């Protein structure tokens, strides 16, 4: 169902996080909601995250309806069930691709746009893609070592994304799930160290790249700036530019023709920086919010 929706809509209907929780489960409070036709065939799916019990945090959800079953009220039925399960909490629902049908459903039910996430892309064949940008003096860039570098990376990730609603809260389990995924490649997970990683060195930042297989983000394989994070104490060293160049060079050497990244639309400085780096807007994801 997910693959069919992605092929028709040109965008993945669920986030990576929702797909991982569908496969492996997730924190307490998560629910999988399935809509079926009279013959028991799945025609719609939603993932709901309620978070910790007893809090007033927003509930969050994502939903998809198989293309052949659209226009029959399945999306409305799934959304109604999500609202029932969310109870008195405000509910946020992600619409990947900002498709007209999702906008119509959300606005008709009293939702408003709360967050907008841009997917930006650029070619990897441009002459201005410079793999020769060197890291700052005294900094060494190495590949991630599974089983050794997890604690250091999680610490820097939490500091670099302290204000990010999802990325900054990653746990060892979140990292382990991704290390077990078929796409994981430590050679494309670049870490910048000051000093010896095994002798008291300090991790300053990282650029974790990802390769989407054919059919995932398009008909051909596509690279991704998956997580690019710099420790706040290492800002201003030019490390982000160097790690970006090294990561993109790694993806180009792997034979990829295009790279994507995600950025919040209201992060105006970051969007401007990426646009100056040759990225253009490709797709939009919208988080719709409704207060009961």
UniProtKB/TrEMBL annotation:
Entry protein name: Mycothiol acetyltransferase
GO BP terms: mycothiol biosynthetic process
Family recorded in the similarity comment: Belongs to the acetyltransferase family. MshD subfamily.
Annotated source species: Geodermatophilus obscurus
Residues reported to bind acetyl-CoA 1: 63-65
Protein's gene: mshD
Catalysed reaction, written as an equation: 1D-myo-inositol 2-(L-cysteinylamino)-2-deoxy-alpha-D-glucopyranoside + acetyl-CoA = mycothiol + CoA + H(+)
Keyword presence, Acyltransferase: yes
An MF annotation (GO) of this entry: mycothiol synthase activity
Database matches in Gene3D superfamilies: 3.40.630.30
